[in-house]
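Re: weekly structure request thread

Next one in the queue (195 aa):
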Amino acid sequence: MLETWIFYAFAALLLYSGVRVITARNPVHGALHLVLAFFTAAALWLLLYAEFLAIVLVVVYVGAVMVLFLFVVMMLDVNLERVRQGFWRNLPLALVVGGIMVLEMGAVLASRIYGSAPREFPAGYSNTKELGRILYTDYAYAFEIAAVVLLVAIIAAISLTLRARKDSRHQDPARQVRARREERVRLVSMPSEKD
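Done, posted below.
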């Protein structure tokens, strides 16, 4: 009974943070709500006894992807007015996609309630070991393609932040190496002061 109440509390928090991700006016606030959504989703994975997936969700998405996303958002000078203009125009499509997702989740829950009983596992069963076996045998190519896609996303994020801007300061190591003492230091001869 307590586990059910904990599930509903985390699910409500996940829905709230998910709604705030798309309705927050500030992109940084939206990203922080997305971090909260990841943490609550990880808590739901823990309730389902999928500890490895919960840890991976926190480490990969919160620890790496969201930090990268926050850096990109803060470094890109996002024009908030242009972002807000497209919100109402895309709302009907977003409602259709959201409705499809709700129907899919309803079908999953209905099959769990009215379907067969969950499978019983043997005593020494490890979901982490089984996940690794399936991931690196049956889905090895999909895993490698996902790795390449993530690499391309990292390269794109870095190239977006390194664009030339007027107000950005940067170092030129080649120019620093060519510097000579005569160009940088000027010796001034001053008479000593008397007390």
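The two ends are 86 Å apart (CA to CA). DSSP finds eight helices and no strands in the chain.
Next request, please.
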